[in-house]
Amino acid sequence: MKASGSSGWKGPVKFRMPTAENLVPIRLDIQFEGQRYKDAFTWNPSDPDNEIVLFARRTVKDLKLPPAFFTQISQSIQSQLADFRAYEGQDMYTGEKIIPIKLDLRVNQTLIKDQFLWDLNNFESDPEEFARTLCKDLGVEDPEVGPAVAFAIREQLYEIAVQSVSSARESRLSKKSRRGSDYGSASKASGLSMDLVKLFSFKSSVVRKRKDLDIYEPMVDLLTNEEVDALEAREERHAR
Amino acid sequence: MATNAPIPGGSGEIPPITPSRPIIPETPSEISASSNSLQPPPSSSDTDRIYIPSYSRWFSWNEINECEVRSLPELFDSRSSSKNPRVYLYLRNSIIKQYRDEHPNKISFTDVRRTLVGDVVSIRRVFDFLDSWGLINYSSSASAKPLKWDDKEAVASEPPSTVKESAKRICNGCKSVCSVACFASEKYELTLCARCYVRGNYRVGINSSEFKRVELSEESKTGWSEKETLLLLEAVMHYGDDWKKVASHVTGRTEKDCVSQFVKLPFGEQFAKDSDSEDALETFNQIKGSADPESEGRVKDGSSSPDYKRMKLTPLADASNPIMAQAAFLSALAGTKVAEAAARAAVTALSDIDHEAGKNAGGDPNGQEINGNNSERAVAEAKSLLEKEEKEVEGAIREIVEVEMMKIRDRIVHFEKLDLEMERSRKQLEEMKNLLFTDQLNIFFHTRRSRKAEDRAEC
């Protein structure tokens, strides 16, 4: 991949996850006969499709789910993979794209809230590495938190990459203006990316504003069992 | 580290690096689910001892053994950036650590998958691999130890307890059980079933001639170990022809088994590689030299079978034609001699049929004439074919020539156009020159006139 750092926009790049490893985040949320199965993991899209069946069967067996889940799981995985593959042939524009990534998740008894800036242009970025370091630095003991954090980051990156594909498509459809100016407007229109030029110009300083300090600080909470139950009950009520 | 109690049966130990529980490999003699010859551990309810089977003795925390590379090739061939040895090491070590934390409870794939960062397919493969090699979820109780995967899942690899005793050969290409015959390459340690061999279903760098054909029908039932082979050879050397005595010397084998095994022994090549069995080679040479006529006959049989085996089969090149592929597959399965015989028989049968047809058509009982007819017909056919070919070639050449002519014509047309353009621009240039000239003249006259006017004005 081309090294990031040059200003302006480079030519369109074939769609892929903007991370070092091209893994697709897959989220499952299946409800059937009163049983709910929620899961999230990463999948390598270059694996053969028979792996989906094997994985689904294994999961149903390990978690002792009713066998009806098997078809639902494999279908869900397959449709998400198909979506990803549909995007794969298309172009996405990569410009200056520093985006804030928000973490707000609860894994077993650990609650993590965090926000940080991520460079979408850096195709060598590694959410797993970041998650590992985060957990180590914050002293998180539950081994399931790391993968969940990595997954959340990956999911958000995936969504934004998808958005950039659709914006690239729109800019191409409108043939009135020339490409360069059109792209610039599109990226600003997305609203998420920060304007680096403004940020690092001589007028403003690199130090974060005071009001942003709280948002950008990670927060880890260990909940007791009762709090976990209460939270879960609240979530289910929201879901319905 | 706690001291390790001595275990009957002579199993080894692995010095563990991180865990506080001692790891003790056992020595099961057969890994098939049917036979339970596992040696029971000294105390069954041991929560602070972790057992692993002795065929997994190669395991080491910081290294990757080649059987791991073999079983999980997709993680090591750098096709995908997320599949590389570092990732494999991380997955494998985390899974094993997690299992050892949970010991004696077993861990399931989903437990592991939730705590590991990586794509789930690779995790599943590594998990299955470790499971099959007994590095995780290994219970040393004598109750049935079935291999822990679904029946329909492809079997990745079977851990052989000793190399010669593997009950079944699994093809590395299609992961199916090899039945009649298989092809083994010792250089790359691959085993392929006949179909994969013919289809070329192996890695790119391997030549088809690297494979040797290995008959399986007897091997799967008996699986002769080295010791037994050695005993057999000794017995034959001592007792020569008395197969009863030979069978009694080789414990546990019937006469027929001994005879068939002796005939099949791949002398020379295999024993040359094995440094232990050089004496076996010598004994065989002695046997070869023995004057006993009957054993000589059998020995000749034995020496012919290695040639038979050593013949390197090259699959018929054009595997795209399905019929040819099928024929190649069948001939590979059956072996060269059988295939030769079959082909010869087929040819003679065909010529017989021709013979018959010739007889019926000509109505002439004279055999020679019919033969002459046959050969004449063949010659005529060949000639007509030749003519057809020539005509085709001529036609092709004609077409090529025509195309070339058209090309040249086009080029000429192009050049003519260019020429015209040149002329036109030259004419334009001329005109412009003329114009310039007239302009110059005008200016000259004007200046003359104005100077004359000036002179007149001065006077």
TrEMBL record, chain A:
InterPro entries: SNF5. GO terms for biological process: chromatin remodeling. One of its GO terms (cellular component) is nuclear chromosome. Keywords: Nucleus, Transcription, Transcription regulation. Its main location: nucleus. It is found in: Nucleus. Belongs to the SNF5 family. This is Bushy growth protein. It comes from Brassica carinata.
From TrEMBL, chain B:
Its main location: nucleus. Residues 372-435 form a coiled coil. PROSITE patterns: HTH_MYB (PS51294), MYB_LIKE (PS50090), SANT (PS51293), SWIRM (PS50934). Residues 20-38 have a biased composition (Low complexity). Residues 50-147 form the SWIRM domain. GO terms for cellular component: nucleus. Residues 219-270 form the SANT domain. InterPro entries: Homeodomain-like_sf, Myb_dom, SANT/Myb, SANT_dom, SMARCC_C, SWIRM, WH-like_DNA-bd_sf. Residues 1-47, 288-310 are annotated as: Disordered. Residues 216-266 form the Myb-like domain. PANTHER family: SWI/SNF COMPLEX-RELATED (PTHR12802), SWI_SNF COMPLEX SUBUNIT SWI3B (PTHR12802:SF44). This is SWI/SNF complex subunit SWI3B. It comes from Brassica carinata (Ethiopian mustard).
